[in-house]
Each structure stands twice: as C-alpha cells, then as structure tokens.
C-alpha cells in the first residue's frame, strides 16, 4: 500500500489517510439527503436517487483514488442538481429523462475533451496568482456554506440586508458555534485528527440539546434504482434547448471542478514547480467517467467536491484518502439512518476551520503588482459573493486579461488564457 500510494514519499501514513478520508465523507455526507430531495422535485423517485447518488460517489471517488491517486472526493454536485431539477425540468418543462440525457452527453464530451487534453490545457492557462487566489476564494466560500447551512448566517426575508446573523443563542446555530470553538481548540493544541474529533464531539453534544436525533435502526437495504437506471430521452437531443442546457452544464461543471482541483491542490502544496496539478488529466478523467456513469444510474452531474479540502486539511495527500471516502459512501448505502446524525450544525465547525486553512496561500500572492493583485482579489471575493466557484474564476481571468492589456503588459498574457477569457465572455453574452 505504501508503494502503490507513495505514502512515505508524500509524508503521510495509512492511519492519517483513512482519518482524512472519513473526515471528507462526513463533511459531504449531506449530499445523500439533499440530492434526492432536490431531484425528487423533478419527478424522480427519491429512494432511487439516494442509491444512485451513493453509487456514483463510490465509483467516481474510487477512480480518483486508484487511478489519479489524488485525495479528492466526488459526488453529484450542488448547483448542478438544482439546475437539473428547477431549471431544466420545472422551468423549461422538460422531463427528467431529457435532463439525464444532457448529463450523459456532458460526460461523454468531457471524456473526449480529457483524452485530447483540452481540459488540461484550460487548467494550465490559469495564471499562477489566480490559482493561488482560487484557494483563498474557496476558503471563504466553504466557510460561508457551513455557516449558512447551520443557520449562523441567514438571508433575511425582509430584504433589509443580503445576509445577517441568524439564531445563535439556541438550536443548530448555537451547536455550530460550540463546534467551531471545540474544533478550534483541538487544532490549536495540535491534536491528531482534530477536525474528525471535532465533528464527533459536536454530534454528541447535540444529542442532549435535542438537535441530533439518534436513529431507531442503523442498518437498512438500499432502495432499487430501477426507476432511474438508463432513463434517457433521445428525440430532443438536436434541439436548441438541449444545446443551451448542455453548454451550461459543461461550463458549470468544468470550472467548478477545475477550481476545486486547483484550489485544494494549492492548499496541499501539491502543485509542481510549474504550478500544475499532478495527474490532472487522470483527475479530470475520473470526473468525466463519474458524470457519465451517474447519468446511467440516475443522478445529476458528478463533480469534485470542495469539501475535499477538509480531508486535505486533516493530512490526506494520496489516493488512499479518496479510497477511504469511497468505502464510507458504500457503507452509507446500508447505514443511511446512522449518517443522518451528521447535520449541517456538525459539519459547520470543520468547514469554517478549513476555510481558515485555505486562505493561507494569500501570503504567496504578489499584492504589490496591481495587474496581479486586482484579478486575484476579484477571484477571491466573487466566489462567496456570486455563490459560485466558476464565476469567481471568470472574474479573475477576464480582469487579468483586461488589466494586463491596458497596463501595457500584454506580453505576459498567454494565448491559452486569452482563448479561455473569450469563452467566458461569450458564455455570459449568450447563456
């Protein structure tokens, strides 16, 4: 195992990798509940979607771990599932079979783009300081996600402010604050497995508070995927709407995944001397296969989860972390009632602390050169403000091109970066 995953070479060990993998799983286990809820709005059977969600996460994350040998976990992505259900089905009026067909085509296109190194070229086109900024932006973004899900940060119904402080004197908000403090203390005292232990302790505290409910049973058989398996609709694949849906899925998934891979790899100090993510082609291939198989099983687009940063922060550096996460998703198929105790109030503590870890790379950004600093800053702030990793990258890359150009430093802009920037602009104009 040491030889296969190169544990010693990466300064890690089996125990650390397994703990990291479990930590990653616990921070993203919510997708097993949320994804079926969202896709059921599109008329899909929630039980079948649960099984499809877990299986697609198992398969794609195993490919990431065993083939790419990177500590990144995959599952049906948030935002992509909402687009699937609320836009394609409920707003545009198409069937979920039409949406699944678009996801299948997206996966096939991604496989082809990966084989011909197009996606890899896009990753390499992102300027180094933007890559560092992506890590910082993701840190702020996942901290916001954690606080919002736990109710610490809310969106006021009266519209007085964009966000406001939620209820933190009682309920999930209070438990989240307690969890943040406990996890922070464990991290400050350099306790091994601090993030994992923080979630466990927080969950235990939530039981007498009446926030965490212990399940009546632990083991259950996974529901059948018969109603969602290979449910495709081919007669609309040449329509204009299919082109629009397909391009939107491609754009959202591509740059969310690229942003996550670059950001988390940056935090883990995994970038090579040229600022490239190791085994990036294999990682993107795992993502493409996951999306294709996910469509066949009956779920929305599979992507690399930003919560992978939690496992990396716990010390995960190799594919063994991903394999451990995949095993947990497989167990979740049969232990779904038990994993229901991992509520947003429990995971918020980890996401906030990991957010702190992720912003560390801001020290490496050249803030004295404004042609570098301004695009990096826009990348950072637009991720949480636009609620999108991909939109943050768009603002960073496009502003980088424009500022460099009009500041007389156009020779520092690569042709690949310009091409990517043009695609970004066209996306906002036409989609």
Automatic annotation (TrEMBL):
<feature type="transmembrane region" description="Helical">
    <location>
        <begin position="79"/>
        <end position="96"/>
    </location>
</feature>
<dbReference type="InterPro" id="IPR045018">
    <property type="entry name" value="Azg-like"/>
</dbReference>
<feature type="transmembrane region" description="Helical">
    <location>
        <begin position="326"/>
        <end position="359"/>
    </location>
</feature>
<comment type="similarity">
    <text>Belongs to the nucleobase:cation symporter-2 (NCS2) (TC 2.A.40) family. Azg-like subfamily.</text>
</comment>
<dbReference type="GO" id="GO:0005345">
    <property type="term" value="F:purine nucleobase transmembrane transporter activity"/>
</dbReference>
<feature type="transmembrane region" description="Helical">
    <location>
        <begin position="413"/>
        <end position="430"/>
    </location>
</feature>
<feature type="transmembrane region" description="Helical">
    <location>
        <begin position="168"/>
        <end position="187"/>
    </location>
</feature>
<dbReference type="InterPro" id="IPR006043">
    <property type="entry name" value="NCS2"/>
</dbReference>
<keyword id="KW-0812">Transmembrane</keyword>
<dbReference type="InterPro" id="IPR026033">
    <property type="entry name" value="Azg-like_bact_archaea"/>
</dbReference>
<dbReference type="GO" id="GO:0005886">
    <property type="term" value="C:plasma membrane"/>
</dbReference>
<feature type="transmembrane region" description="Helical">
    <location>
        <begin position="20"/>
        <end position="42"/>
    </location>
</feature>
<keyword id="KW-0813">Transport</keyword>
<feature type="transmembrane region" description="Helical">
    <location>
        <begin position="380"/>
        <end position="407"/>
    </location>
</feature>
<protein>
    <submittedName>
        <fullName>Putative permease</fullName>
    </submittedName>
</protein>
<dbReference type="Pfam" id="PF00860">
    <property type="entry name" value="Xan_ur_permease"/>
</dbReference>
<keyword id="KW-1133">Transmembrane helix</keyword>
<feature type="transmembrane region" description="Helical">
    <location>
        <begin position="194"/>
        <end position="212"/>
    </location>
</feature>
<keyword id="KW-0472">Membrane</keyword>
<feature type="transmembrane region" description="Helical">
    <location>
        <begin position="102"/>
        <end position="122"/>
    </location>
</feature>
<feature type="transmembrane region" description="Helical">
    <location>
        <begin position="237"/>
        <end position="264"/>
    </location>
</feature>
<keyword id="KW-1003">Cell membrane</keyword>
<feature type="transmembrane region" description="Helical">
    <location>
        <begin position="134"/>
        <end position="156"/>
    </location>
</feature>
<feature type="transmembrane region" description="Helical">
    <location>
        <begin position="48"/>
        <end position="67"/>
    </location>
</feature>
<feature type="transmembrane region" description="Helical">
    <location>
        <begin position="284"/>
        <end position="306"/>
    </location>
</feature>
